[in-house]
Specification:
Length: about 230
C-alpha cells in the first residue's frame, strides 16, 4: 500500500494575490499552476510555455492524502518567480505589480526583523495596498491614452465618437469592478481585479477583438473567483 502524504493548506495573500499555499511534510511550499494563472489573468498554457524546460511536478501528489483535488501541476516558489518575471517583462500589469510589491514587502519584512519590529499580517497587507494605490495612480497616466486610442480605432480615428467615461464604466462592469469609486477607494482585491481587467482587455485588443467583443468575452469568462479545495 502506497504511503499517504499529508498536505496542509492555507490561504495566503502574496503581494495582493490570494493563493492556496500547500505545505509538504518536508516543509517545502507549492502553489497551483492553474490558480496562479487565473490570479495573473492569463491562460495556463501560457504559464507552461514560460516554464519550458523547467521540471514540473505533474501529478506528483495526485490522490495522496487529500480529496476533491483536480490540480495536476504544482509550482515551487522559484517557478512562480520565473513565471512572474516572464509576464512582467511582456507588459502584464498584474505580474509587474506582483514583482514590485513582492520585492518591496520582502525588504520591509527583513528590515523589521533586523530592528526587532513585530507586525501583524494585516499591517503588511495594508502597506501592500498603499503600494498598489501608487502603482494604480501611475498606471492611469498610461492607461487613458492607450484606452482612448483603442476606442478611436473602432471609429476610424474619430475622437468625437468616443465617450471615455461611459466606456470605462463598461470596462469596470465587464471586469466585475465596483462602478462609482475611484482607485483610492478600492479595496486591495478590487485593485487587483482592475489591473487584471486592464491586462486582459489589452491582450484581447492586440489579438484583434473590437472593444465590444473584448467586453463581451470578459463578461462570459469569470476569472475573478479563486478555487477552493477540501482536504482531509
Amino acid at each position: 500500500m502506497s504511503e499517504v502524504i499529508k498536505v496542509e493548506t492555507r490561504e495566503i495573500v502574496v503581494a495582493g494575490l490570494k493563493l492556496s499555499c500547500y505545505r509538504l511534510p518536508s516543509g517545502e511550499y507549492r502553489a497551483s499552476l492553474s490558480q496562479f494563472a487565473k490570479a495573473l489573468g492569463v491562460e495556463t498554457t501560457n504559464v507552461k510555455r514560460s516554464l519550458k524546460g523547467v521540471s514540473l511536478e505533474v501529478k506528483a501528489l495526485s490522490g495522496k492524502g487529500f480529496k476533491g483535488v483536480t490540480e495536476t501541476i504544482l509550482l515551487t516558489p522559484e517557478q512562480m518567480t520565473t513565471v512572474v518575471g516572464s509576464f512582467a517583462g511582456n507588459g502584464n500589469k498584474v505580474a509587474l505589480s506582483y514583482l514590485i510589491a513582492t520585492s518591496t514587502e520582502t525588504l520591509i519584512r527583513r528590515a523589521d526583523a533586523v530592528f526587532g519590529i513585530k507586525k501583524k499580517e494585516s499591517d503588511y497587507e495594508e502597506e501592500t495596498k498603499k503600494l498598489y494605490l501608487r502603482l494604480r495612480q501611475q498606471a492611469r497616466v498610461t492607461f487613458r491614452p492607450k484606452f482612448t486610442d483603442w476606442l478611436k480605432s473602432d471609429h476610424n480615428g474619430d475622437s468625437s465618437e468616443v465617450n471615455f467615461p461611459k466606456e470605462v464604466r463598461r470596462l469596470k462592469a465587464a471586469g466585475n469592478i465596483p462602478i462609482g469609486r475611484g482607485v483610492d477607494e478600492m479595496s486591495l482585491d478590487e485593485l487587483m481585479k482592475w489591473s487584471e481587467a486592464e491586462s486582459r482587455y489589452d491582450a484581447m485588443r492586440i489579438a484583434g477583438l473590437s472593444h465590444n467583443e473584448a467586453l463581451l468575452t470578459m463578461k462570459a469568462s469569470d476569472l475573478t473567483q479563486i478555487p477552493t479545495f477540501d482536504f482531509e
